Amino acid sequence: MITFAVHGIGKPQRALDPGEDERWITVEQFDALLDVVSGSGAQLTFDDGNSSDVEIALPRLVERGLYAEFFPLAGRVGERGYVDRGGLRQLVDAGMHVGSHGWDRLDWRRFDGSFAVRRELDEAPRLLEQLSGTPVRRFSLPEGRFDRRVLTHLREAGATRVYANVGGVRGAALVRSRTEIRSDLNSRWAEAVSRRPRRFPGRWASRPGR
């Protein structure tokens, strides 16, 4: 089953990090994606914890009876343009799952010491548990990348599921691959991908009309 990774929707309520605009889609594009998901059984995940998760995505998911997993950046919860504690509780109360995207947007393969490991893999999920009121044992990898050392840290942190942009990794049964939604989304592509066997990288590079 295909899993789509969504980031921001609609007009950003904050300054975007470099390159982040490539992962933002319009409300109309998101509605078209939901049409595809509703008809195909594809799964949805949301990274970063943007305020659009609660303001735009959540009511549409509830209206359609769809389930999704949300992976906020723990260190940005409550900042302008990101979900706050109330938003996390809304997600949980609506039956959605809250996991961890780490503390900040860092490549976990480049941990430079025990402090970074503790903050990203221990403190981040612990804080999200406190704020959301639900256990956090699922992780979404920043940039979707990992190595054996990262997997070891995740196992030690008690991870039960890890989302990445690649799949079929030997010895990494807890890793699930995703396909990243980008700003040039079109529903024909999404529909075609959702019906295709999962034998390709989790990053989308096609353009509308292809």
UniProtKB/TrEMBL annotation:
GO terms for molecular function: hydrolase activity, acting on carbon-nitrogen (but not peptide) bonds. It comes from the Bacteria. PROSITE patterns: NODB. Residues 40-210 form the NodB homology domain. Pfam families: Polysacc_deac_1 (PF01522). InterPro entries: Glyco_hydro/deAcase_b/a-brl, NODB_dom, Polysacch_Deacetylase. Keywords: Signal. One of its GO terms (cellular component) is extracellular region. It is found in: Secreted. Its main location: secreted. This is Polysaccharide deacetylase. It comes from Amycolatopsis rubida.
